[in-house]
Amino acid sequence: MSMFKDIPVEVGVIFEGERIRRNDMQVELGGPTVNKKFEIAYVKQMDQIEDGKVIVVGPDLKNLEEGKAYPLGILVEAAGAQLDSGLEGVIERRLHGYLNYLEGFMHLNQRYDIWMRLGKKSFQKGLNSFEIMGKVLFRLFKNELPIIEKLQITFITDSVKIDELYPNALAAYEARDAKARGLKDSEVDTFYGCALCQSFAPSHVCVITPQRYSNCGAISWFDGKASASIDPKGPIFGIPRGDIINEEKGEFSGVNEAAKKRSMGEVTKVWLYTAFDHPHTSCGCFEAVTFYIPEVDGFGVVQRNFKGAAVNGLPFSTLADSTAGGRQIDGFHGMSLEYMRSSKFFAADGGWNRIVWVPKEVKEKVKDFIPKDVIDKIATEEDVKSVDELKAFLKDKSHPIVAKWVAEETSVAATENEDVPVMTASTLPISAGGFRIILTDAKIYASKVVIKKDEKTEKR
Ligand code: SF4
């Protein structure tokens, strides 16, 4: 039984996490083959929008060719006496949950990275217009966020209109992200958790702190704060920071407790500033993956829309699969690009001094946050095509990681050359010349060890 009688498909939480395979899809909206796509929320004045209005700019769902991918822009405009622009990120992120409530509809990712699919069965049942989707969204928003008094939703498939609005959307995302920069984790007593992706990754909870952005890159600490205050029973909740257990690795007692509780005991420890041992869990809609490259003891980063293989020969999808699903995988880390702008970006692992390969597009986006003395020493896909080439590049550029190789080689060589005892014993009695000598905690060094058969013992 549908939540809404006049809607041709079922609507409900049970459809969250539903995957639509390529063969089962009517159309794809956004996704990896579409260059420009976005979803964005704006808070407007009461007289600027019309409550309940759904606008479609460009061809509607029923006019899109089966099996094809199309650009899409979604504009959610909200007004209310208590609304302000600080809530735009919160309203926008609700699209992920609400669109996934639709039977036979899949929404992945966020912002400029959205990827949706409408299933054939739901299309045949009658979900063939954005008007219907808009109606559902309108009701869910109004039910769950009563602070929204007026709501207008626009779906855009017209690529000229998308081109026109796209730069404004990017500028709005950047302004939101910039607001959260500068504040330190140690300066706040509450972090925020988001469990919105548990439908896809049951043990995953995003821990959102001023210095560690959410994995999807869509929710800042400020967004978390705003969301938890207007909808305390919603998917975003406050996490009292608790004690700092390990400042370097980013371990906080409150985070451990929240992770344990929300993951049903699956995850008991989370270290926020490292990719090793107890890294933050990775859901499925992270913007990028950091991956360890053992041959050079450094990290590569690859973003979702990167075409082709990363320097280790693996594409984003394979690297993402090796860490997604709410797991903590040593050396692999699903994360947002905004985390790369944080001074806590893998701080415990060496930060930018440990990053050895980053696609050019990402490097360009975060270049102002990469230390000047290392930026040219980090390779891109244009510099190297394999790990061997990467190794040579790093040596040639004297990347800081090379000093680590030299230090490790020296310590291995030193261990190999070091005099090691031929024998150790806690007590070692020696009888000689009528005396009995007892050595305590003995370590015996010898330049030569001769092993001979004891003739007397042999004869006996
Ligand atoms: S990635 Fe994290 S913050 Fe973003 S929707 Fe999923 S759980 Fe929430």
Write up what this structure looks like.
- This protein is α+β, with helices and mostly antiparallel strands.
- Among the domains are: 168 residues, 2-Layer Sandwich (Bifunctional carbon monoxide dehydrogenase/acetyl-coa synthase(codh/acs), Chain M, domain 3); 95 residues, Carbon monoxide dehydrogenase alpha subunit. Chain D, domain 4 (Ribonuclease HI, Chain A); 37 residues, no CATH class.
- The protein has 12 helices and 19 strands.
- The strands form 6 sheets. The protein has a 4-stranded mixed β-sheet. Strands 2-5-8-3 form a 4-stranded mixed β-sheet, with helices on both faces.
- A hairpin with a 2-residue loop joins β18 and β19.
- The C terminus is likely disordered.
- The chain binds iron/sulfur cluster.
- Iron/sulfur cluster binds next to α1.
- Iron/sulfur cluster (SF4) binds next to α1.
C-alpha geometry: globular
Say what the CATH topology of the domain at 13-180 is: Bifunctional carbon monoxide dehydrogenase/acetyl-coa synthase(codh/acs), Chain M, domain 3
- CATH architect. name of the domain at 13-180: 2-Layer Sandwich
Poorly predicted regions are 424-429, 453-460
Largest sheet: 4 strands, mixed
Strand order in space, largest sheet: 4-1-7-6
Q: Please give the radius of gyration in angstroms.
A: 29 Å
Round the mean pLDDT to the nearest integer and report it. 90
Number of helices: 12
